[in-house]
Inverse folding.
């Protein structure tokens, strides 16, 4: 299984609906795709979705890392691919993803099959859907639209103002009752005083989790936040490696780890992090960036085959206007995702204009 070539393609996709989180408003997404071709013509494809605030790399740095990989890859075996550096995790994730896609196709199975359950990712799985920071009426308007579309698990972005966050959450609960599940993502925006206020006033909200409430580099504050609230606290930006999981576990009762393939560096790294979380009695969630359905398919394959994964937050592809792999993941009318039957990551069409993709 010798690599004959590798090519890189960049797609800039506007979002159907821009959204606001604690530290920025996002209106478009840039994804890089790497295509690895073997000497027999078989191809595997991976996606990189760099985001400086989360993956720690710029769009240009991710592309440069993939261009360097493409120059070095020819002549390599799949088992000895020259992976991009750890400091460019989205580029590393793209290569790792393409490698898994190829390995599965060579074996005539799915990526889920590489983890021992070939049909698992084809089973519909519920994902949460994100509602960005906005006023109460705007929040309710978007929630009603999403509810009508079948979604029943809302992840609310907050972190600017705990008072407004609480008002929005209470309004959602009053409107939808127990027909929805809710979680809150503070995106590093809270101090410990806000955590205490949230815990006091959110007792009737039944929040599934509170994601990354405090600054990512202050693990002791994250652990203290977990001690101050009955809401399960999830680490996101604070964790990029299995070592980070160990450090977080030593600082307090953090209950959950958000595994993002783009942040961790791919499926192999996600496996290590899930194992570290399980060892420390932490559950995991499969999260995402604004990324192609191809990358979402990889995350779905992982989530469907790892029982420690408690939640899926895989909606990053739904708002992309120009995703070359849109058909790789299907959404039903109950807010559930699945991968259609097919080898590897399930792509079938010549979406990147490569005549020899098969």
């Amino acid at each position: 299984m010798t690599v004959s070539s590798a090519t890189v393609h960049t797609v800039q996709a506007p979002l159907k609906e821009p959204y606001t989180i604690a530290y920025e408003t996002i209106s478009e997404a840039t994804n890089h795709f790497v295509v690895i071709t073997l000497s027999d013509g078989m191809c595997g494809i991976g996606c990189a979705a760099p985001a400086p605030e989360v993956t720690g790399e710029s769009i240009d740095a991710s592309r440069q890392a993939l261009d360097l990989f493409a120059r070095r890859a020819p002549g390599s075996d799949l088992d000895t691919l020259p992976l991009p550096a750890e400091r460019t995790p989205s580029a590393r994730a793209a290569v790792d993803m393409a490698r898994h896609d190829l390995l599965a196709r060579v074996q005539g199975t799915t990526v889920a099959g590489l983890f021992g359950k070939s049909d698992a990712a084809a089973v519909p799985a519920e994902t949460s859907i994100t509602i960005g920071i906005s006023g109460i009426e705007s929040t309710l308007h978007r929630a009603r639209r999403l509810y009508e579309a079948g979604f029943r698990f809302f992840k609310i972005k907050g972190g600017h103002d705990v008072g407004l966050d609480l008002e929005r959450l209470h309004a959602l609960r009053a409107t939808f009752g127990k027909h929805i599940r809710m979680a809150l993502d503070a995106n590093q925006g809270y101090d410990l005083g806000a955590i205490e206020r949230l815990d006091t006033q959110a007792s009737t909200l039944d929040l599934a989790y509170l994601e990354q409430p405090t600054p990512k580099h202050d693990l002791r504050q994250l652990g203290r936040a977990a001690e101050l609230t009955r809401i399960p606290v999830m680490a996101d930006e604070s964790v990029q490696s299995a070592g980070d999981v160990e450090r977080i576990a030593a600082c307090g009762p953090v209950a959950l780890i958000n595994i993002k393939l783009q942040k961790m560096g791919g499926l192999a790294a996600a496996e290590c992090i899930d194992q570290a979380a399980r060892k420390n009695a932490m559950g995991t969630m499969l999260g995402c960036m604004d990324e192609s359905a191809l990358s979402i398919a990889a995350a779905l394959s992982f989530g469907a085959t790892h029982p420690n994964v408690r939640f899926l937050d895989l909606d990053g592809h739904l708002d992309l206007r120009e995703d070359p792999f849109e058909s790789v993941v299907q959404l039903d009318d109950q807010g559930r995702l699945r991968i259609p039957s097919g080898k590897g990551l399930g792509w079938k069409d010549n979406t990147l204009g490569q005549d020899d993709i098969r």
Observations:
- The domain at 3-109 is CATH 3.30.390.10 (Enolase-like; domain 1).
